[in-house]
Structure formats: structure tokens, C-alpha cells
Amino acid sequence: MTKQEVDFDYILRSNLERVFNERDDDKRRTAIDDLFVEQPVMYEPTNIVKGREAISRVAGDLLKQFGPAFRFVPEGAAVGHHGLAHLSWHAGPEGGPVTVTGADVAIFDDGKISQLWVLLNVR
């Protein structure tokens, strides 16, 4: 798969839904295997997370921290080219007020996320 053939929107939306909204650890690990390279790196505002298992743990802990109704929702379509893509999102309790907004920016390698920056908007 060449960089031009990557469906950035599908992969980044899948990352939100299948990784960061998934409460089942096994399903989340399977999704990470599908979407990320073997040794991905995720850059959070206050942390650098290395490896698939660590990313799964961060996502699971985040969901536990914010409760069962908390969800990430994509805003618009992801855009990208030449192996770099961006997807805006908002999050909060399902049907409730938005508590955080941000964006994911990813670098892709062979059709999978190799590096992911989680950018939070200051409110």
C-alpha cells in the first residue's frame, strides 16, 4: 500500500472508535494491532507512550477515569497526504456537554499509524 492509497479518514476514525472508545481490552488490543505499526509512539501533552500495549493501557485508563458514557466523536473527515493526516474530535458524556476538544495528527508507515500526536485545545 502506498502512502497515496491510505484511507486516512477510515484509520483515524477507527482509532477513535475501536481504540479510544473501546472498553473491552481484547477488542481494543485487536484494533491496535490492525491500526498501528509494531512499535508505535503516541505523544500526549504530558507524556510519550511507546508500544501497542502501552497505548491500549492509556486508552483503557482514560475511559475508566471519565466513566461509561464518555466518548470521542470525530468532527468532519480526516485530511492528509504523503503519510501525514489530521482528524479533529470532541469528547464528553454521550448526549451531554462537550468537555474537551482536540485533534489527532498521525504519521503513517505502510498504511498504519506509526506516530500519533494527541493535541488538546485549551478552553
SS-based structural class?
Answer: alpha+beta
List SSEs in N-to-C order: HHEEHEEEE
Percent range for β-strand residues? 35-45%
> What spatial order of strands do you see in the largest sheet?
2-1-6-5-4-3
Distance between the termini: 39 Å
- Gross morphology is globular
Mean pLDDT: 94
Query: Class, according to the CATH hierarchy?
Result: Alpha Beta
Helix content: 25-40%
Radius of gyration: 14 Å
DSSP strand count: 6
Fold-level CATH name = Nuclear Transport Factor 2, Chain: A
How many structural domains are formed by the residues? 1
Biggest beta sheet attributes: 6 strands, mixed
Please tell me the CATH architecture by its name: Roll
Compute the number of helices: 3
Précis, in short:
The chain is of the alpha+beta class and 123 residues long. The protein contains three helices and six strands. The protein has a six-stranded mixed sheet with strand order 2-1-6-5-4-3.
What would you say this structure looks like, in words?
With 123 residues, this protein is α+β, with helices and mostly antiparallel strands. The chain has a single domain (3-120), classed as Nuclear Transport Factor 2, Chain: A (Roll), CATH 3.10.450. Helix content is 32%, strand content 44%. The protein has three helices and six strands. The protein has helices spanning 8-20, 25-35, 52-66; strands at 36-44, 47-50, 70-81, 84-93, 100-109, 112-120. Strands 2-1-6-5-4-3 form a six-stranded mixed β-sheet. Strand 1 (36-44) and strand 2 form a beta hairpin. Helix 2 (25-35) packs across helix 3 (52-66). The protein is globular and about 35 Å long. The N and C termini lie far apart (39 Å). This is Nuclear transport factor 2 family protein. InterPro entries: NTF2-like_dom_sf, SnoaL-like.
